[in-house]
Design a protein that fits this description.
Number of strands: 7
Largest sheet: 4 strands, parallel
Oligomer: single chain
Distance between the termini: 27 Å
Structural class: alpha/beta
Strand order of the largest sheet: 2-1-3-4
């Protein structure tokens, strides 16, 4: 007689025999991957990781999925100039992601969606996922909560171009809704970009080129052009706006998982 699985959505809380039993049901496994990097003076350095894990937990509860233990470290090469940046190389992250996918496949799981919450991770994670498609035949899904927030919340702000930014909107508001005890809004300072070398920086790795609307790429460390680590308007953060972030991002991710489930289920 097969014992019933415990009422948990977290893979790490199961025994190996229960994992074997679960794999036979062909569930979707969510793999959170974050990063440890600066987000300004007012937000914690593990922000990307705890939000990735929170989103995965919420999605698993609402969509009958399971969450693998999170990978809390990612690739944050552009922020090495700030203390507390604990970054893996792109090659290491790609290898680790691939080997985690391989281990899940060896455990019997075929449907895996990565909850990847850091821009620097996207390249290595994409490469690992494509290699896994080639080597194991699995189709890896990918959700990026922070990026989805930018795409889904433009109508919330009078001017998204000035509101959005690293350490600013909408992540500041999302953190106020998700982890208010870890936000120190009183320490927030206005963002801004400046260069002592004559450039006019416009983003992490772009600068204005006189006479052109097109920006030029310059591969500096962000600390060279941002003394606070922030861009955007840090004064707009509110838990109320963060609740909108939760509703829209979780809504999209749930719809994505439903589509992924429909198209990857055994025929």
């Amino acid at each position: 007689m097969t014992a019933a699985l415990p009422t948990t959505h977290r893979l790490g809380e199961l025994s190996w025999t229960q994992v074997k039993q679960l794999a036979e049901q062909d569930p979707i496994i969510l793999l959170p991957i974050g990063a440890v990097e600066q987000h300004g003076p007012h937000l914690p350095i593990h922000e990307d990781s705890i939000v990735a894990e929170w989103v995965a937990d919420r999605l698993a509860k609402e969509n009958n999925c399971y969450v693998a233990p999170a990978l809390h470290y990612g690739h944050s090469g552009t922020f090495r100039g700030y203390p507390g940046n604990l970054s893996l190389s792109q090659a290491t992250l790609r290898t680790v992601t691939y080997e985690l996918i391989e281990a899940l496949v060896q455990s019997g799981f075929r449907r895996i969606v990565i909850i990847d919450n850091n821009g620097g991770n996207v390249g290595p994670v994409t490469g690992a996922s494509l290699d896994a498609r080639r080597d194991f035949g699995v189709l890896i899904g990918h959700l990026y909560p922070w990026q989805l927030g930018y795409a889904l919340m433009r109508d919330v702000y009078e001017d998204p171009a000035t509101a959005y930014g690293h350490g600013a909107e909408p992540e500041h508001s999302a953190m106020l809704a998700l982890f208010p005890d870890q936000v120190q809004s009183d320490l927030a300072v206005a963002g801004g970009l400046e260069s002592a070398d004559g450039w006019t920086p416009t983003s992490y790795n772009e600068a204005a080129i006189p006479g052109y609307d097109v920006r030029g790429t310059v591969l500096w460390d962000f600390s060279e052009v941002s003394p606070t680590g922030c861009t955007g308007d840090v004064s707009l953060g509110s838990a109320k706006t963060g609740e909108i972030w939760i509703e829209r991002v979780i809504g999209f991710c749930s719809a994505y998982l439903q589509e992924y489930a429909r198209n990857t289920s055994a025929k």
